[in-house]
């Protein structure tokens, strides 16, 4: 029974020494001296703020992209025991002792280190020689810009890691297609492709470029499968469903999960939640939730409400009135109604309260039981403090003469009757009998007499003059001018009015309500709103000292100073390896010219290289050349402030193209032994140049050792580089 113990248990394993050595070298190059400098480096001042907010569970919105990358950085802080207490206010600020610098920078450094073996494996899976694969990995290893970017709390190295992982996973899956379809390893690499693509997009939307490229390549491969007569219709359907599940459905689900975790972690109110809707703000702990907790859900006749404009850009504001009237004559000579001013006020104020009144009744309190207001009902809006009715008429608005003035009606005993009836239209209703709900309902107020819609026009224009206290204009806009969010309002604060007397009502307007009705948003509603804000919320693009154009990147005419030692000449710059970048440009040009030459010759039925070599050449070009193109060319269409680090995913693919071109030239153009020997010698000399440039600029990549002014001046190889020299 125990006979198997007579023989030793033997485990054999194949170890790729190249892969192990490259991984170790990558780790050394990225992790060495990781805590130096112990100061805020360039965009750490930006990402560090989000890490602190994660530690404190405070909600934020970052318009630069999805939250997965931020969560990975926060994971580093969590593992290091960071409490979030640090003021991220300037580049170069010394980190306090409670900031775990090594832990915060660890994940980007690990991602950057693993890009080295990934580059090796990608070239192997493209069926190039191990020598070419080793060359690609060493070029990534010695690329100064990738070293610099991966050693700090930044996202580009993580993005590049997931991009390369997605490419490698798809290549491994594709190479298993012919002999091991639907096997365990086949499924593993296919699923990992989708997961890596989703992670890349979750780090930065730039990951979409490579994701779209892989979807296009997968679609092309499946198109070729359709023409394979050896595959049955059922088999083709299974292949199609497997790819759809792994490359579309799972990435979408994973992308949603990033937001789910993000929203679950950030449940507290903070400075960023003011750009969100009232419903979203009310779902957060603290802030608006403290004010709105326990409010009645259904708006009824007699309800006391504040109305917030849904647009919320460039600032949130509430429908407001005060005792002051419009001037009889404006500065341009036009006349007004001299009625009480109605504005949109960007701050909470007792004059923001309005009472929903039934036109057929005089009472300003909620009946028992309450009579809810529904879509299509006619109401009057009574200003809580002054008790005047919201009104509009055929008088030009002060700043928008083509729109109607909105006022609170004062009876001057002249031929200007009150026009104060408004129809409630619930924009996001599910049926025409929907009840007007606090926070959840988005409503328009359509004037019964003129069909004008209540609009906060001041959100897209100038504020009122001094007589209007610089508050925002509110107008009656004709429906024919189309729909805009500035025409939509939602009830933010709400109570059921109980006091008929004005003095008692004023006291009531200042006091909070305590009725327990929940208004929690579903995850999908919060996700949709947050995703829309990320896509549409854009900070004003300002010219930055180190911003650049996409054309500057190819020739590396620009650099970015990341950090400068306060006393010595030690500094860190984002600068590429000049030898590698020039070689990558040359390789791309050679690849393009050779491809066009081969295509023209093949059109004439002249085949310069074997068919398998042609297929290898094209597949490598679609991955490496295509990866460069999709990650670079879109920046010419973007209207945003660009920096050199935006080019790093593209240049990574371009670097992978160098050994592809070199091996092709050596195999197919250097036909004699002498030419091959000379070509090998040139490659050795060229690689020595690459290593020399790496060593020369490594003090600017690692920030040490400190260089003298003369040494720094010698490193200014281009006049456009901003190398900092102390006087």
Automatic annotation (TrEMBL):
The chain crosses the membrane at residues 68-88, 100-120, 126-142, 154-174, 186-203, 208-226, 246-267, 578-600, 642-662, 674-694. One of its GO terms (cellular component) is endoplasmic reticulum membrane. Its EC number is 2.4.1.109. It is found in: Endoplasmic reticulum membrane. Its main location: endoplasmic reticulum. Signal peptide: none annotated. Residues 296-359, 370-427 form the MIR domain. Pathway: Protein modification; protein glycosylation. Keywords: Endoplasmic reticulum, Glycosyltransferase, Membrane, Repeat, Transferase, Transmembrane, Transmembrane helix. It comes from the Eukaryota. It is a multi-pass membrane protein. It catalyses: a di-trans,poly-cis-dolichyl beta-D-mannosyl phosphate + L-threonyl-[protein] = 3-O-(alpha-D-mannosyl)-L-threonyl-[protein] + a di-trans,poly-cis-dolichyl phosphate + H(+); a di-trans,poly-cis-dolichyl beta-D-mannosyl phosphate + L-seryl-[protein] = 3-O-(alpha-D-mannosyl)-L-seryl-[protein] + a di-trans,poly-cis-dolichyl phosphate + H(+). The keyword DNA repair does not apply. It is an enzyme of class 2 (transferase). Belongs to the glycosyltransferase 39 family. This is Protein O-mannosyl-transferase 1.
